[in-house]
């Protein structure tokens, strides 16, 4: 039988169960998909913990790559035998599985030059990086950004993409080892936030001006320092809450710190239009196939070891991308 990791209650990694599942046949607008590799994302821990509430029992994971084994009535975007990848949110929940039935709409055909493992390690991170680089702000060569978690999966892609665009990247990390990784992948400067004042160091590196944009995936513990790192009329992009949700605040603080802008974007809203998704995916896949952007898959797990994978992720032991090999 097919296998899947599911939860019957919310909580820590111990609630993840490796179970037999009956997949069945695809209905209208659906496909049956055999997974080859499944992505591990920090958002998965939010579903598991209950921060993102879903009806229980529930599958885990929103990103994977594999082969279409059967198609239901009305499916036109993919065919049996196609290599595909996907990412999403509630609509794709259940990726931690060997096989599944899934709506065909989220599926993206995968170029032959990109492996299943690479795809599972970068579809969410890569499309996130794509919209951050190409849709959030009108970057021009010479602009400077502050990138938190620069040695993480999104961080490594954003820093490489930013280098291609001629941007200066100041990355934050939590160790010397992660600093070396960030510098090797496009960061011009790194700040160890465990022992340095990020905003103060940013001001030193920018001659007191600050940066045009901050990409902050950490949240609660970095929010104030991120605002203090921006130049006048700079943009704060809240892309995650790894340290916890950002506490409520008075928007007047944005005026007091330089008429700042703030956005909390979600990938789903930037790939909701199929044409937008295709354009971003094509640019992303083109960079990867040409070797201009490298995807670092640094952790590999068996599906039954999902609990350990979540522990490693939450303890910040990982760098780059992590995948389950099916």
Automatic annotation (TrEMBL):
CDD domains: QOR2. Signal peptide: none annotated. It comes from the Bacteria. The keyword Ubl conjugation does not apply. It holds the Pfam family ADH_zinc_N. PROSITE patterns: QOR_ZETA_CRYSTAL (PS01162). This is Alcohol dehydrogenase. It comes from Caballeronia concitans. The lineage of its organism: Bacteria, Pseudomonadati, Pseudomonadota, Betaproteobacteria, Burkholderiales.
């Amino acid at each position: 039988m097919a296998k899947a990791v599911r939860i019957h209650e919310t909580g820590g990694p111990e609630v993840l169960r490796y179970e037999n599942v009956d997949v069945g046949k695809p209905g209208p607008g659906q496909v049956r998909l055999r997974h080859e590799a499944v992505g591990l994302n920090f958002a998965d821990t939010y579903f598991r913990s209950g921060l993102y509430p879903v009806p229980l029992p529930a599958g885990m994971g929103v990103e994977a790559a594999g082969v279409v084994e059967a198609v239901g009535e009305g499916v036109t975007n993919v065919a049996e035998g196609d290599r595909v990848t996907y990412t999403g949110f509630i609509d794709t929940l259940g990726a931690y599985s060997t096989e599944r039935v899934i709506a065909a709409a989220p599926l993206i055909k995968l170029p032959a030059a990109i492996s299943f493992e690479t795809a599972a390690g970068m579809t969410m991170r890569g499309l996130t990086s794509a919209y951050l680089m190409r849709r959030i702000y009108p970057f021009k060569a010479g602009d400077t950004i502050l990138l938190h978690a620069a040695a993480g999966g999104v961080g490594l892609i954003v820093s490489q993409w930013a280098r291609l665009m001629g941007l200066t990247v100041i990355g934050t990390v939590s160790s010397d080892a992660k600093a070396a990784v960030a510098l090797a992948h496009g960061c011009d400067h790194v700040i160890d936030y465990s022992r340095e004042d990020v905003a103060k160091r940013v001001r030193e590196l920018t001659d007191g001006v600050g940066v045009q944009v901050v990409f902050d995936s950490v949240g609660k513990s970095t929010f104030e320092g991120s605002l203090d790192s921006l130049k006048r009329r700079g943009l704060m992009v809240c892309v995650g809450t790894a340290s916890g949700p950002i506490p409520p605040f008075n928007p007047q603080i944005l005026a007091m710190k330089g008429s700042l802008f703030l956005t909390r974007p979600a990938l789903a809203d930037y790939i909701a239009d199929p044409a937008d998704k295709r354009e971003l995916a094509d640019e992303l896949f083109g960079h990867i196939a040409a070797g201009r952007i490298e995807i670092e898959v640094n952790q590999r797990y068996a599906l039954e070891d999902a609990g350990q994978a979540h522990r490693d992720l939450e303890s910040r032991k990982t760098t780059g991308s992590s995948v389950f090999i099916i």
